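Re: folding output
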Amino acid sequence: MNETVSPARTLDIFQLRTAIATAKERFARLMQRHRQLDGYMVLSMPPSQASINSDFVTMLTELPDLFHENPSKIEAVALCSDETSKQDRHIREYLDNIALDLTVEGTCRIETRFNHLDYGLIERLKEDDLVDQELTPRTRASIRIVLGTISSLAGPPPRAGEK
């Protein structure tokens, strides 16, 4: 997919989920095409990253810049800073509700990480149309494979009045 770099776009938690689902589908297709691919995906905003399979609390603690600053984020970060609170079921449910009030940074990238490096495979992946050709570095020294930004993987923004 020869995608252009998406302009910064504010997304909600549902669009983040859509982007993650799209990335998982794309990664599954990559694994079918490249059987020797042994890796996983991460949400990446250097210098931080979080597993694409992380729950909200983990994303918030490992990749806080993914979420835009607002009073709900400040409250969620405070609750997540206490290990006892993070384990409490009621607080976790409350945090899941707070997530609905947060907006997400659309420039966050979804990238592949490798369990075993195969440089020949990495070079072939760089050429694959399922990989973002604009964001994946083309140098032989780079092992970064970018599937896309959250914005590009979430699809077009909703029209006025849609959610």
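--- second protein (sequence, then structure) ---
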Amino acid sequence: MKWPLLSLFAMALIYALTIPQNFTEGEDAVYYAEHVSVGLPQWHPNHLIYEPFNYWIHQLTGGDAVFGMQLISMAAALMAIALIWALARAVGAGVSASLAAMWTVAGSFAFWLYGLYPDTYALPLPLVLGSVLALFHRRAALAACLAAVATLLHQSHVFLWPAAVIWLAFWPQNRMNISRYSVIFIAITGGAYVAVGRFALDHATFGETLAWARGYASDGLWTPLSILAPVKALVGLATAIWSTLFLFADPTLGAQVERFFPGRLLIEEVFLADTGLVFGVWPLLALTATSALAMVGLAGRAAFAGSRHPMIGLVALHGAVYALAVTVWEPTNKEFWITVLPFLVLAVFLRLDPMAWAARATAILAISTLWLANGAGAMVGFSDRATDYWYQANRGLIEETQPGDVIVDDCAYICTGYLLLFSPAEILPASGLDLAETTGPGRIFITERARAALDADPQQGWLQMRGGLEPVRPVTAPELYEMPRQASP
């Protein structure tokens, strides 16, 4: 047991040294953290109990809510890594293959980053892997309970249900457990949604609760179905394993990456690449390419290897179900591939087990360069707030304001989230200017962004108020104007 324990200790130390202060890859995470910080956790249908759970822990422990949520994610990520070892050993894998699976998943970019973010992706993972491990030991009731709670933490884990049903159906002695699994899973998840809808949200009918519970699924697919979906899936999977942020430090390479994400604002990535890299672009590219080629070589060898582990199908089935769902829903989203990674990596190394010296050497090369590339090319940068575009773009505003102040702004989704989380002031959109007088009692600030928006679509009395704006000195970023309270409509 010393090798997995030493590995977990080393990973915990590396994770602790790279706790992110840059949240630009977590647009929603800043809102989750703000909800918990101010004591208003949301019952969101796509992650029903995530915010309430974090708020409950915050109430018990106190301290900084954001850092506390990050520690919860980190603990969940380390538990998931431990369960990767447990699952590999349970099916009979050797020490080398089990350790390789642990270190590969733990060093993958998306797992590493979101395993330290105040976000929804890491917390359910121990339950997901625990559910699969329980299925392996033919404990259907426990597997269903774990799968249900994972689904309440993030709705995407509803796919554990069909995967389990398929697995149980292929084993005649387990078919009697299909009904048991299904009843328990539906009772816990359905019961939780109905209870929240009825008692927390005051839904009048079951139909209202059902419509709310569908969450983002009610909007249809996030990405239209395309014959290119499998190619996009490979891109999404690759960016979940290897960070490509360093490429934006080179304009030519950055332009090539932008082709895969048309219409997406990439200013955050460019800013981090300009301010947060430990090595230069070309050393990082060499490390990433070395890791990728070595990993592809291992996967290719695994594809043609025979496996002595008959239960590898359990791992492969869950990976395939999740991968199919991601490919259909949003194949380029690296966050969604986080759950696929443990199953995919386990499938590869289980097929390579027992690992010959060549496979072992290749794995060491792939994993060491993976950690170096993602650490030096992304995670060290993310641990420094100076690399955070949205914080730095609003730093003057955040530092200028005090409790009781009001900021009228016209800002993007993530920008508004940053102001809500980091500024002590109340935030109003430009369209809510008429509400500024009812808040306070501090100063009323108008940002340059809001002033431009109001100039383009003026409210009644705006032109008169505009003449009374006083620029804040020294000049801040974004530029600020103070509006006398008596001048508001």
